[in-house]
Design goal:
This protein is an alpha/beta fold. Helix content is 18%, strand content 30%. The protein has helices at residues 19-30, 81-90; strands spanning 12-16, 33-38, 42-46, 51-56, 74-78, 106-109, 115-120. The strands form two sheets. The chain has a four-stranded mixed β-sheet with strand order 1-4-3-2, with helices on one face. The termini are far apart. Residues 8-121 form the VOC domain. This is VOC family protein. InterPro entries: Glyas_Bleomycin-R_OHBP_Dase, Glyoxalase_6, VOC_core.
């Protein structure tokens, strides 16, 4: 029997209407840095261990959430969720009316209209 090779995720990629702006939003949201740009088409962010790259897709359409299935979804955890929500809203996130998480998590939409959740660390 051949052993299963081990691997690690090197990078996750996301698409939006403006990859560089989306990278800047998530870098600010996470306290990370934009580490590389690729012209106007893409930008990469990292904390030194995890890397995300955001691409511009001219034909991008945000999901009509919650009706549409999601292509990706991030859950972000913070020490102070209320302060994080206010900061994320000031960075360009929006808060939809539909909030299925109750007291457990809050759904926000990033600047490209894609949902992500915030919750308390350890929850």
């Amino acid at each position: 029997m051949t052993p299963t090779p081990t691997a690690q995720v090197k990078c996750a990629a996301f698409w939006g209407h403006d990859g560089k702006a989306l990278a800047a939003f998530y870098a600010d949201a996470l306290g990370w840095k934009v580490t590389q740009t690729f012209g106007d088409a893409a930008a990469m962010i990292s904390d030194g261990t995890t890397t995300y790259v955001f691409y511009t897709a001219e034909s991008f359409t945000a999901p009509n959430w919650p009706e549409d299935e999601l292509v990706f979804h991030l859950d972000l955890a913070f020490d102070d969720v209320a302060a994080a929500e206010q900061r994320l809203l000031s960075l360009g996130a929006t808060k939809p009316d539909h909030q299925p998480g109750g007291e457990h998590w809050t759904v926000l939409l990033d600047p490209s209209g894609q949902p992500f959740c915030i919750s308390a660390i350890g929850r």
